[in-house]
């Protein structure tokens, strides 16, 4: 497909986004280590179905600017990027779908600016209250004293920045497989503190995989080879700051309609969201209209199970359209 690439100065940074189709606007927000291209199979399907699809490179990743300080990745900056994108495109309100850090970005937006959000569609990471007693990086630091933990490895520069930038292909090859339904992130916990993430992950099978071609992998590798990983890592390093900014809204509910799509072997649902993550999400988004789970897939669900994800997204969007 010939993608329609655009660049604009938004919220003080140069942002890159891809836009396809016409109709009700749908903004797709990726996580780490992803880029807009993580959604390329959804962009085409949704645009062909009659939606105006916008997929930005989120702050710090892809071809969007990567400010150097973790404080540049706080809630206000990230929601400001999404609001600025709407303003730039002359869109009053849009449906927002997000996976991984992209999911938390759209939940923050819905809680702070509900008038700009028609609905939220969370993938893999449901909205959840935060531990009011302990900042997240402190909690993860304690966990990382027992065994390898990727968040603890990412926390303090420059080790992760340098090691990942030195081997972008090896890191992405390993992490995409480890986070998929065929991998097992929790095997990384068998390694001691201080292990590098690349060394903690198992060797993946050679490409192509059933869900990812060598050409697709090379696109991710080329983008991260150019940009480096510091911008994405700053989303982790700003977790305590975001925790502080979210505290005043703890217990606040959003009236924005919500939908959730998860997968059977998602690492975050299995290990980081508690025993009943859907109940926690419903406490924040009481108008949670549908929950769908895809068997067999992992955290890379939009690539691992593209046809199923596309069908479910179109089902959710049809329901939103009927509002």
From TrEMBL:
Coiled coil: none annotated. This is Alpha/beta hydrolase. InterPro entries: AB_hydrolase_1, AB_hydrolase_fold, Epox_hydrolase-like. The keyword Hydrolase applies. GO terms for molecular function: hydrolase activity. It comes from the Bacteria. Residues 25-131 form the AB hydrolase-1 domain. Keywords: Hydrolase.
């Amino acid at each position: 497909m010939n993608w329609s690439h655009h660049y604009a100065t938004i919220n003080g940074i140069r942002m890159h986004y891809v836009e396809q189709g016409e109709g009700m606007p749908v903004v797709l927000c990726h996580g780490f280590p992803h880029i807009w291209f993580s959604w390329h199979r959804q962009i085409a399907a949704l645009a062909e179905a009659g939606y105006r699809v916008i997929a930005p490179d989120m702050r710090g990743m892809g071809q969007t600017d990567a400010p150097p300080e973790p404080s540049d990745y706080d809630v206000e900056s990230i929601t400001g990027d999404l609001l600025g994108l709407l303003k730039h495109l002359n869109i009053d309100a849009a449906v927002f779908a997000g996976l991984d850090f992209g999911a938390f970005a759209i939940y923050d937006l819905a809680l702070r600016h509900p008038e700009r959000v028609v609905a939220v569609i969370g993938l893999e990471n449901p909205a959840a209250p935060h531990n009011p007693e302990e900042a997240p990086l402190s909690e993860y630091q304690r966990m990382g004293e027992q065994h390898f933990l990727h968040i603890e490895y990412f926390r303090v520069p420059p080790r992760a920045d340098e090691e990942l930038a030195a081997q972008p292909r090896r890191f992405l090859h390993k992490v995409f497989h480890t986070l998929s339904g065929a991998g097992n992130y929790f095997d990384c916990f068998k390694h001691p503190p201080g292990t590098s993430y690349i060394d903690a992950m198992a060797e993946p099978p050679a490409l192509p995989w059933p869900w990812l071609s060598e050409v697709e992998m090379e696109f991710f590798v080329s983008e991260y080879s150019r940009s480096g990983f510091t911008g994405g890592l700053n989303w982790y390093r700003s977790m305590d700051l975001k925790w502080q900014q979210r505290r005043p809204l703890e217990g606040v509910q959003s009236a924005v309609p919500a939908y959730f799509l998860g997968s059977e072997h998602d690492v975050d649902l299995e290990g980081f969201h508690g025993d009943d993550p859907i109940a926690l999400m419903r406490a924040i988004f009481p108008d949670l209209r549908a929950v769908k789970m895809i068997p067999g897939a992992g955290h890379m669900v939009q690539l691992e199970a593209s046809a199923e994800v596309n069908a479910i997204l179109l089902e959710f969007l049809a329901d939103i359209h009927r509002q």
